[in-house]
């Protein structure tokens, strides 16, 4: 396993090591990259009435994030400006770990969702999307005659 | 025993995520940017103790009742990261700003550590 010539940051090193391990153990790495470690990080949860998606989008203007839901496929895309733009010639960058650039994440959700009942809120760099399930798909208790 | 110290140490033990940061140095000081999505202002803690700077924050995530997680990339509700400050940095000249989940921390350099142009005398 190769070691970088100038290890700057132990955590960056560990991060790299972890990626390498992941690559070694992943059976068939997808052409679209690893499911984990992308930007924004995603958490998905579900309730009988809805599907809840939490996207961690720090430093992105909420108005510039595009959220699309089409036939059960949710797309979150946008662009994050680099915090290191506008540096003077004498400024030194010591650590650079934060994501910068365009991002796009696609999640396939179940097809019982109601594309008309979507609610998205963004607070403190956390985007919460709540999608209601179609009324017909919600579990009902069937009474026995 | 001081109770606040105990709770702080207990919080220190709790596993936390390591937030990604950018650190830039210019002539007057150092600027640190840390990604802390989900952390509101009142749950962010920036501390300087001796020469150690510690950033910690607790997320405030509203989850509906009875939600079952189906996929989780962010598995812990808190962030923590520490840095060792060098002597020329002045912890008194520290300002913090939190916007859209990004912390911008500015630490100024002590006056005596700011660059001076050295005059070279020609003998």
How would you describe what is shown here?
The complex is a heterodimer of chains A (145) and B (123). Chain A has two domains: 1-32, no CATH class; 38-135, Immunoglobulin-like (Sandwich). Chain A has one helix at 10-25, and strands at 41-46, 50-56, 66-70, 73-80, 92-96, 101-108, 113-123, 126-133. With 145 residues, chain A is mainly beta. Chain A starts with 9 loop residues before the first helix and ends in a 12-residue tail after the last strand. The relative contact order of chain A is 0.19. Chain B is mainly β. Chain B has a single domain, classed as Immunoglobulin-like (Sandwich). Chain B is 9% helix and 46% strand. Chain B has one helix at 3-13; strands at residues 21-26, 29-35, 44-49, 52-58, 68-72, 78-84, 89-99, 102-109. Classes of the chains: A mainly beta (145), B mainly beta (123). At the A-B interface, strand 1, strand 2, strand 5 and strand 8 of A face strand 1, strand 2 and strand 5 of B.
Summarize the structure.
The complex is a heterodimer of chains A (145) and B (123). Chain A is mostly beta strands.
Largest sheet of chain A: 4 strands, antiparallel
As laid out across the biggest beta sheet of chain B, the strand order is 1-2-8-7
Helix and strand element order of chain A: HEEEEEEEE
Total of DSSP H or I helical runs spanning 4+ residues of chain A: 1
- Quote the distance from N terminus to C terminus of chain B: 65 Å
Instruction: Estimate nothing, just give the exact number of structural domains of chain B.
Output: 1
């Amino acid at each position: 396993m190769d070691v970088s010539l100038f290890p700057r940051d132990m955590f960056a090193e560990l991060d790299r090591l972890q990626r390498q391990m992941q690559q070694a153990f992943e059976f068939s790495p997808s052409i679209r990259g690893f499911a984990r470690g992308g930007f924004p990080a995603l958490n998905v949860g579900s309730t009988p009435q809805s599907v809840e998606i939490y996207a961690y989008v720090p430093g992105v203007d909420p108005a510039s994030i595009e959220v699309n839901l089409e036939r059960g496929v949710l797309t979150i895309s946008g662009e994050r400006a680099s915090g290191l733009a506008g540096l003077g010639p004498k400024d030194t960058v010591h650590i650079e770990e934060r994501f910068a650039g365009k991002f796009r994440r696609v999640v396939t959700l179940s097809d019982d969702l109601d594309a008309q009942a979507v609610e998205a809120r963004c607070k403190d760099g956390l985007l919460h999307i709540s999608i209601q399930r179609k009324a017909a798909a919600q579990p009902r208790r069937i009474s026995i005659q | 025993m001081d109770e606040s110290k105990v709770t702080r140490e207990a919080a220190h033990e709790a596993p936390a995520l390591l937030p990604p940061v950018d650190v830039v140095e210019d002539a007057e000081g150092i600027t640190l940017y840390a990604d802390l999505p989900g952390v509101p202002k009142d749950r962010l803690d920036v501390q300087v103790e001796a020469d150690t700077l510690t950033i910690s924050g607790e997320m405030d995530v509203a989850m509906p009742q009875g939600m079952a997680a189906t996929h989780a990339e962010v598995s812990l509700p808190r962030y923590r990261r520490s840095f060792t400050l060098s002597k020329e940095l002045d912890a008194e000249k520290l300002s913090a700003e939190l916007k859209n989940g990004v912390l911008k921390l500015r630490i100024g350099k002590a006056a005596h550590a700011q660059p001076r142009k050295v005059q070279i005398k020609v003998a």
